[in-house]
From TrEMBL, chain A:
This is Phosphonate ABC transporter ATP-binding protein. Keywords: ATP-binding, Cell membrane, Membrane, Nucleotide-binding, Translocase, Transport. InterPro entries: AAA+_ATPase (IPR003593), ABC_transporter-like_ATP-bd (IPR003439), ABC_transporter-like_CS (IPR017871), ABC_transpr_PhnC (IPR012693), MetN_ABC_transporter-like (IPR050086), P-loop_NTPase (IPR027417). GO terms for molecular function: ABC-type phosphonate transporter activity; ATP binding; ATP hydrolysis activity. PROSITE patterns: ABC_TRANSPORTER_1, ABC_TRANSPORTER_2. Residues 8-252 form the ABC transporter domain. GO terms for cellular component: membrane. It comes from Nonomuraea terrae. It comes from the Bacteria.
From TrEMBL, chain B:
It is a multi-pass membrane protein. The lineage of its organism: Bacteria, Bacillati, Actinomycetota, Actinomycetes, Streptosporangiales. Belongs to the binding-protein-dependent transport system permease family. Residues 94-274, 362-547 form the ABC transmembrane type-1 domain. This is ABC transporter permease subunit. It comes from Nonomuraea terrae. The keyword Transport applies. The keyword Nucleotidyltransferase does not apply.
Length: 256, 555
């Protein structure tokens, strides 16, 4: 898929933690509109760090990042918030407020487009509430709207988080290990939901995964990271599990 | 440098244990010396030695202790059966005291919330400034604030309310800030990721998470403030504290017992309500699915109804309390103006009249605090462990310990001091003060130890039990092993509380410095009052500094 406009563009992205942890070592990545891309790699390969740069939750040491035409590196304040509104994020730990209702958690997705703080469902305009409810229906949890989010199962909580992201009306979806906390069966159904809504709405998605099978099954392009570098970037069709496993093999031991 | 495994490895052969890099020497590596280990062993030793020295300095011996408790028992014998000369007035005064506590707590909530959020800010200067205000409010005891406000606007409930409010800002602000810091950052990121602004992030990502712990903190503070407002009665705020002090002043012990029993009953009631509500708040929520009949109309579930009832009820209660204590905006403005004027009376301090007794008085104050903390901790730790479900050998022991604990806790500190001073006489004020504070400390330490012991992780205990440990081994390894840093922190906290209790001793005139303080308060020599309070205050801050350092080492 090369025809679409670039949605994500990073050039020479470098991020170091402390003195010697090179989370991103000069990463160049372009993702075009409508693409569904998996970032694959072992723990510590820098995939989550890369993802967090794309909506400004983490700032790079050097390099350029353009997302949806906005320079993320220099954006701050209102400009950064405006960009974040257009980028939906799905987290590994769901990041719901457990003691609030499912509905209130979904409504938080609309914070970027209303003015002023909100507390409680009735402080939201009815139109937003209706829209939130539609998204809940879409993820199959309409009947749970007024239940405490913390009382749902992991898979259900992630569906709520997806509904929250959808309420942002995002153009780009960033998913950080969205199914790593779930059992295999639930993981498959959540991946299915995530990919389906992105296809249906024509959204671009960048998704970090650490399970090769999920990447092969659900995405069209795999970017393999290792030690903060892009080691592989190919359409899913050209790949197989054996080649991908190379990403995870330990390096030859180099004892000083 | 070949790794040499212990040659006596039994069959079947195991992989050789890796030797530490850089050293081929087999055998046990030495335990490295660290500040942490020094503190862990040094603190209890130094504390015990200081405690014994302090008790010796004060002349508290085993014989004296026995005789003293004999005096207390004799006093109690003269205090039964209790009487209430004028029950209607007593109950009205209890209610006055309660309103004072509610108004003081409500007054503290808003500034504490603002300061709490600011103190958890990521901007260094903002955080330091907010923390500075919080620490200052906490450091000055409410009694000192009360003396100041009485000087500023005269006697009555309002100075008591202002004193409680200002002092409460310290604790509430600190607890609020801690809750914000502990809030799940993931949720904050998720809310930030939607493009929310700062106020939206606060209300959408932080407040819902911290709300239960904030409300719990407010309820806890209300509980404390009720005890505190009893004390403030004795310095001119009126209410039940004044009745107590008057009854003891006239040596009408049967009346004193009557008033004390009413007070203790209300303390227990307030605590009971506070604990029950906090339990509700922090407990798990309903997991029932609520059928969404009307898509966007929020159904009135029991939880939602309860939340609204509690919220609006609390606001109404605060409004009534403000009305009862006369805290109108105009009165508050007057109080502010009066406070500015009163500052001139208190500053600069006049050290001349007390120059001779400051040195000895401070030493005595420190000795009372150390001795009381030492005795109280000795009694409080076993009591607290016995009261914890996770440690107590059986339910009988646990319930017995719980009962003793709750009974001791419910006695206001002022009452304890009054009883012991009445039994020993003012001449033996330091000994009476030490013993009264020791009882108070035992209750405080036992409560904190019991709370901590309840929260112990069961994993290590199960692991130790699975290894075939007996109950005593389990106690030392799995319970005390986990609790040691907390015990140190609790002891230091008790010491801190006991140093501040100097001001309570002062109100009844116990101890050299306390007696001078009560005389100068009565004579309105406010600049001398400052001269006595400031050095004690410096002592308190010094203990706080040591405590903070030790806790960070032991963490």
């Amino acid at each position: 898929m090369t025809g679409g406009l670039p949605v994500v563009e990073t050039r020479g992205l470098v991020k170091t933690f402390g003195d010697d942890v090179h989370a991103c070592a000069s990463i160049d990545l372009t993702v075009r509109q409508g693409e569904i891309v998996a970032l694959l790699g072992p723990s510590g390969s820098g995939k989550s760090t890369l993802l967090r740069h794309l909506n400004g939750l983490t700032r790079p040491d050097s390099g350029d990042i353009r997302v949806l035409g906005v320079d993320v590196v220099t954006a701050k304040g209102a400009a950064l918030r405006a960009l974040r509104r257009r980028v939906g994020v799905v987290f590994q730990q769901f990041n719901l407020v457990g003691r609030l209702t499912v509905m209130e958690n979904v409504l938080n997705g609309a914070l970027g487009r209303v003015r002023g703080p909100r507390y409680g469902i009735v402080t939201w305009p009815k139109s937003v509430r209706v829209e939130a409810f539609e998204h809940l229906d879409r993820v199959g949890l309409a009947d749970r709207a007024y239940q405490r989010a913390g009382s749902l199962s992991g898979g259900q909580q992630q569906r709520v988080a997806i509904a929250r992201a959808l309420l942002q009306r995002p153009e780009l979806v960033l998913a950080d290990e969205p199914v790593a906390s779930l059992d295999p069966e639930t993981a498959a159904s959540v991946m299915d939901l995530l990919v389906r809504v992105c296809r249906e709405d024509g959204l671009t998605m960048v998704c970090t995964l650490h399970q090769i099978e999920l990447a092969l099954q659900w995405t069209r392009r795999v970017v393999g990271l290792r030690r903060g570098e892009v080691r592989l970037d190919e359409p899913t069709g050209a790949l197989d599990a054996v080649r991908l496993r190379g990403l995870y093999l330990s390096d030859p031991v180099t004892v000083p | 440098m070949s790794p040499r495994a212990r040659s006596a490895a039994p069959s079947p052969p195991r992989p050789a244990p890796a030797s530490p890099p850089g050293r081929g020497v087999p055998g046990l590596p030495r335990v490295p010396r660290s500040g942490r280990r020094m503190a862990a062993w040094g603190f209890p030793l130094v504390f015990a030695v200081l405690g014994v020295v302090a008790l010796d300095h004060l002349g508290v011996g085993v014989g004296g202790l026995v005789a003293g408790f004999g005096e207390v028992v004799a006093l109690l014998a003269r205090a039964v059966p209790p009487t209430l000369a004028d029950p209607a007035t007593t109950f009205a005064h209890v209610l006055d005291t309660l309103w004072m506590a509610v108004a003081g707590t409500a007054l503290a909530t808003v500034p504490a919330a603002v300061l709490g959020v600011l103190a958890a800010s990521r901007i260094r200067t903002v955080r330091s400034a907010a923390l500075g205000v919080i620490v200052a409010c906490r450091a000055v005891p409410d009694v000192v604030f009360a003396v100041f406000f009485v000087a500023a606007i005269g006697i009555g409930p309002l100075p008591g309310v202002l004193a409680l409010g200002l002092h409460s800002v310290g604790m509430l602000g600190k607890l609020f800030a801690e809750a914000v810091e502990q809030a799940d950052t993931g949720v904050r990121e998720a809310v930030a990721g939607t493009g929310a602004g700062p106020a939206q992030r606060l209300l959408g990502g932080v407040l819902p998470q911290v709300a239960p712990s904030w409300v719990a903190a407010i309820l806890y503070r209300l509980d404390i403030n009720f005890r505190g407002s009893v004390l403030l009665g004795a310095v001119g705020a009126g209410g039940i504290g004044l009745d107590l002090k008057t009854a003891f002043g006239f040596t009408d012990y049967r009346e004193a017992t009557g008033v004390a029993l009413v007070t203790v009953a209300v303390v227990l009631l307030v605590e009971g309500v506070s604990v029950a509500l906090r339990g509700q708040l922090l407990g798990a929520g309903g997991a029932r699915a609520v059928p969404a009949v009307h898509a966007t109309r929020v159904p009135w579930t029991r939880g939602r109804f309860a939340t609204h009832l509690a919220g609006w009820g609390a606001l109404a209660l605060a409004a009534v309390a403000f009305w009862r204590v006369g805290a109108s905006p105009a009165a508050l403005a007057d109080a502010a103006a009066g406070s500015v004027r009163a500052l001139g009376d208190f500053f600069p301090p006049d050290f001349a009249p007390v120059a001779g007794l400051l040195g000895g008085g401070l030493l005595e104050t420190a000795a009372i605090a150390l001795g009381a903390t030492f005795l109280g901790t000795l009694a409080g730790v076993p009591l607290g462990l016995a009261a914890a479900r996770a440690v107590a050998p059986n339910d009988g022991v646990r319930l017995g310990a719980r009962t003793v604990l709750v009974g001791l806790r419910s006695i206001p500190d002022l009452l304890l001091v009054l009883v012991f001073v009445a039994a020993f006489g003012l001449m033996d004020g330091p000994v009476a003060g030490t013993l009264a504070l020791a009882v108070f400390t035992a209750a405080l330490v036992a409560k904190l130890v019991a709370d901590d012991a309840e929260e112990l992780r069961s994993g290590p205990r199960e692991a130790v039990l699975s290894a075939g440990a007996g109950p005593v081994q389990e106690l030392t390894v799995a319970v005390l092993g986990q609790l040691t840093p907390r015990l140190t922190a609790i002891t230091l906290y008790a010491l801190d509380v006991n140093l501040r209790a100097f001001f309570i001793l002062g109100i009844v005139g116990a101890g050299e410095l306390g007696y001078a303080l009560s005389q100068h308060i009565r004579a309105l020599n406010h600049d001398v009052v400052t001269a006595i309070v400031l050095p004690v205050f410096v002592l308190v801050l010094a203990v706080e500094a040591v405590s903070a350092r030790l806790r960070s080492v032991l963490r």
